[in-house]
Here is the input.
Amino acid sequence: MVNFSLEGKVALVTGASYGIGFAIATAFANAGATIVFNDIKQELVEKGIAAYQEKGITAHGYVCDVTNEEQVSAMVAQIEQEVGVIDILVNNAGIIKRIPMCEMSAAEFRQVIDVDLNAPFIVSKVVIPGMIKKGHGKIINICSMMSELGRETVSAYAAAKGGLKMLTRNIASEYGEFNIQCNGIGPGYIATPQTAPLRERQADGSRHPFDAFIVAKTPAARWGTPEDLMGPAVFLASDASDFVNGHVLYVDGGILAYIGKQPK
Ligand code: NAP
Ligand code: GCO
Here is the structure.
């Protein structure tokens, strides 16, 4: 029988007090997992715990900056003691800076690389030894359309998410023999606070040109929602995907398959 259950599993989803991470953690809890999440701010951890509670989920929240190796090691040790060894890790925490490349400082570029690429490396390397001891593990890296495509103003983000796709393949290559599967999810354009500026109404009440552009570029003809990522995440976290490794599952309403509307 196909097993999508996460009963008895401990799942850490980084940056999951709201947005995509929150939806993925909620789906995991509904599939039976115990949820652990972190955020960089105490206030957001508290808000997150309350939001999970509203859904009937008891989530364990920790304050931790995922770019800080010491903080990550301390958090993972604490999770192992207080909740259990992590079976499922979702590297979800991420930031974007939309700045034309020639106007971007090296410090700004590094900051994006730090959160979106270095942090998944740091958290994975701290979590993998426990998975090896346990004899299994699932790592899901939240990639992007920008793991495949470029566009104006997102050079650092695209470099980081392209790198994250390759880190995904490398973790799969290096730790597959320990029954660890590392896959990516590449969300399309999803309505969350991160993309809110791209959907803001114009002064005259009309839609943001980028909003209209994305809807036209998406065969599904809409923005995605965090809930669209729930099923794919549960699949990649469950035994049902035990022979799927090093893959990026694009959940994009068809954007990557589509050349775009022909001009009238
Ligand atoms: P979001 O709404 O901005 O949420 C990201 C979360 O990560 C926030 O809770 C944020 O906390 C946290 N975070 C940022 N830096 C952190 C750090 N150093 N340590 C710990 N937590 C940190 O983003 P989202 O749209 O849900 O995106 C989640 C992931 O999906 C990101 O990796 C993003 O790049 C990716 N993604 C998003 C889309 C989309 O269309 N929305 C599409 C493809 C991929 P603060 O609020 O405190 O900053
Ligand atoms: C942007 C967007 C994207 C999305 C997402 C696409 O400015 O182009 O923010 O990068 O967030 O990652 O998959």
